[in-house]
Design brief:
The protein is an alpha+beta fold. The chain starts with a helix and ends with a helix.
């Protein structure tokens, strides 16, 4: 009997040791493991970004870490590490106003990136399927496609929610309470709280940050999803069809009455429960055709199919960039101008190539080529030079006195529409110069997607 008891004790100890061996390491050790820190360092170097308050660049971080990490780690492990304030930077919003960003110093970006990498596996599997922003394997295109499916199913009214300065208004206590639901490591929680309260350097003075999570830090996208996960759960509980990309939320309903009722009730939930503020001027209940989602809109074909289009405001923002690149006062060669333009076209069509219609891309091409013809006429300067170059391309403006008069006397924009100029510098000419067409780039993106 005694022998059996001893054998049982040994088996219990063995089982206990096996359990301890397979127990996951503390989250703090995962955050600051060598593999996780190296991955975070590579990500910071790839993202680059502006220097923080100490002026250190991303390129300088690796050698600095090699020399100083032991002292930084000693402070972190002892709980005495103090993050530096973030630099306040403002950039213009596409729809007017300014967006305030916070730029942490590169060392803090490294530590925040390491925290984010360790927290994503903890939180992401539990996030809503309707949340698409800043999540692995998810994209804005997926959100737009899910929205189209909801509209195709008969939800022709939208509740377009605009959270007023969301990243600046997040309540720290409410946010940390939600982080603590899944993170039990007090050292990690304490460090996250320190980053939230690190302060902001604005106009040479450090201002305490009593609320908000600085937009621009590696940790803020994950924290925003954690904060708004309660909104996702509430919308699911109510049975709504919706998509959310960070703080952009669109709910799809079937009628005007349902849209107005949903807007009022969700606004109350956001302001009373989550302590956030809804911008009542920009938030609206409207037909789905009148609003946009992540730069895209929807339209209905004659056959009753819902298709994706490029939003009008996105086209307006594009024209601002194209005007700058094709400005006749920008004194660069046409080759350099086209190289800059082509890089912009590649990025723009990679995103907006999701649209189903090529009409807007063809219209942009038509207008852009005229802008380039205007630039070319400016660079040729004199009438004799213009006539010589047009003759070389096979068209003589002197054959038509009216066209010759316009080229000699009228403004450059008017000259760019003259028949002989359009024929001489047609689509084939610009293709030979290296012009990358919006429409052709769209077509190629559709072929790749197919």
């Amino acid at each position: 009997m005694h022998t059996v008891a001893k054998a049982g004790e040994r088996s219990d100890r063995t089982a206990r040791h096996r359990t301890e061996d397979h127990r996951e390491p503390p989250l703090w050790d995962v955050v600051f493991s060598k593999e996780n820190l190296l991955a975070a360092l590579r990500r910071v170097e790839i993202n680059r970004g502006a220097p923080g308050v100490d002026g250190m660049t991303a390129e300088e971080l690796r050698p600095w870490i090699a020399r100083n990490w032991p002292s930084v780690w000693a402070e972190l492990d002892a709980g005495t590490y103090k993050p530096a304030p973030v630099c306040r930077v403002t950039i213009p919003k596409p729809n007017g106003g300014e967006r305030r960003l916070g730029v942490p110093r590169v060392l803090d970006r490294l530590i925040q990136q390491a925290i984010a990498q360790a927290l994503v596996p903890v939180f992401d599997p539990h996030f809503s399927g309707a949340s698409f922003g800043f999540r692995p394997g998810r994209s804005a295109h997926q959100a737009v496609r899910v929205g189209r499916r909801a509209v195709q199913d008969g939800n022709r009214w939208a509740v377009d929610l605009d959270l007023d300065k969301f990243f600046d208004r997040v309540n720290h206590d409410a946010l940390m309470a939600r982080v603590a639901r899944r993170v039990k490591d007090k050292k990690v929680l304490k460090l996250i709280r320190k980053y939230l309260e690190a302060g902001i350097l604005a106009d040479g003075m450090v201002v305490a940050s009593e609320e908000g999570t600085p937009q621009g830090s590696p940790l803020s996208p994950l924290l925003s999803n954690i904060m708004l996960d309660d909104l996702d759960r509430e919308l699911f509980k109510r049975g709504h069809r919706f998509v959310r990309y960070a703080d952009d939320v669109m709910i799809f309903v079937r009628s005007k009455r349902a849209a107005e009722r949903t807007l009022a009730s969700v606004t109350a939930f956001l302001e009373k429960v989550l302590k956030l503020k809804v911008n009542k001027e920009k938030s609206k209940a409207c037909p789905i055709w009148w609003t946009s989602l992540l730069g895209f809109g929807y339209y209905l074909t004659r056959k009753g199919q819902v298709k994706i289009r490029v939003d009008r405001k996105a086209v307006q923002r594009l024209t601002v960039t194209v005007r700058r690149i094709t400005s006749r006062t920008w004194g660069v060669s046409m080759a350099h101008r086209l190289d800059t333009f082509n890089r912009f076209v590649t990025g723009w069509t990679a995103y907006f190539g999701l649209a189903d219609s090529d009409r807007v891309f063809a219209e942009i091409d038509h207008w852009t080529r005229r802008r380039l013809r205007q630039v070319q006429m400016v660079q040729w300067k004199t009438y004799e030079r213009k006539r010589k170059m047009l003759r070389r391309l096979g068209f003589d403006p002197d054959r038509s006195p009216a066209q010759g008069y316009v080229i000699a006397r009228k403004r450059y924009w008017r000259q760019s529409k003259v028949t002989s100029v359009c024929i001489a510098m047609d689509n084939a000419y610009w293709a030979s110069q290296g012009y990358r067409s919006f429409k052709e780039s769209w077509s190629r993106s559709k072929l790749r997607a197919a």
